[in-house]
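Listing S7. Sequence submitted for prediction.
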Amino acid sequence: MVGGLIGRGSILRLNMPENGERRLDWPLLREAFGVVSGKSAPTDKGPLADVLVRPEQVHRGTDGIPMRVVSSVFEGERFALELALPDGQRLKAYSNAAIAEGALAPFVVSGGWRL
């Protein structure tokens, strides 16, 4: 079962170029999220693909895309965040500092895997 493989990761549906690599990096993911040169832009580069993103691959960064914090729960040594992308899809992240629910903050997705 796929759920057992992803653990706490999130599966996103993103437009991805056909026949691309399975391992994805931030520049390619940034474009798939519809952000080009720091501005939101519709993307239709390829068919929709399932992309696995682990919480460890999501972190705050000034060159990130704006995501809304849906929830922030302290887990002992870190905060577990649930984030909403501009298109409404959700993903998880970890933070060493609290971020208020409802806050809009830039996050970078440093990597992911095409399923």
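Caption to Listing S7: primary sequence and predicted structure tokens for the chain studied. The mean pLDDT is 87. Residues 3 and 47 are 23 Å apart (CA to CA).
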